[in-house]
Write a structure and sequence with these properties.
The protein is of the alpha+beta class and 181 residues long. The chain has helices at residues 2-12, 50-55, 95-102, 160-174, and strands spanning 63-66, 72-77, 83-90, 107-113, 116-122, 129-137, 140-148.
Length: 181
């Protein structure tokens, strides 16, 4: 009899309501925000200087373009044409949340770059290209897309993700702190 009452009590309990969806899609928040907005109109003018680009073997002369979203990017080439890098400044939305929501590429890794949350994406381990998205503050960030056309003796690309992360680290180091409101 006691078992019947217990079973009846369990049968009348309702399941808890589902948890609300995560508005950040798992993307971490930025603890020490940096300000990338001043470079949003022309990412070819900064935050890195001509000597910064030169030391990475990338031309300091870039070509600015505008995405359909209105975000601006700057494309630069390696001195011998063996690599290219683009820096996209996203000054009016949380590009890290967008990256976590879409997860455009099958290889996705969470990383920290210069103390800021970031994601590294690549289509395959042998891809010549890699994308690094960095959240710099609420509703702003940047993306480094790096393509490496130089190959190691084993025929694989020479670490485009490592190189993209090094570019992103230099960008973060050059960004000023977000001004207090």
């Amino acid at each position: 009899m006691g078992l019947v009452v217990l079973l009846a009590a369990c049968a009348t309990q309702q399941a808890p309501p589902p948890a609300p969806p995560d508005p950040r899609f798992g993307a971490p928040t930025v603890a020490a925000p940096r300000d990338v907005r001043s470079f949003g109109n022309d990412p070819c003018t900064g935050p890195l200087t001509a000597p910064d680009w030169d030391t990475m073997g990338i031309s300091s002369i870039g070509v600015a373009e505008t995405a359909p979203t209105g975000d601006r990017w700057c494309v630069r080439r390696g001195s011998t044409g063996d690599r290219s890098v683009s820096l996209t400044v996203v000054a009016a939305r949380d590009v890290l949340v967008d990256t976590y929501r879409v997860r455009q590429f099958p290889l996705f890794r969470e990383v920290v770059i210069g103390g800021l949350p970031a994601a590294v994406e690549q289509s395959s381990p042998d891809s010549v290209s890699c994308s690094v998205t960095v959240g710099t503050a609420q509703d702003q960030g940047f993306i480094v897309d790096y393509s490496e056309y130089e190959f190691r003796p084993d025929g694989r690309p020479d670490d485009p993700c490592g190189r993209a992360q090094r570019v992103a680290e230099r960008v973060v180091a050059a960004l000023p702190p977000l001004p207090a409101k």
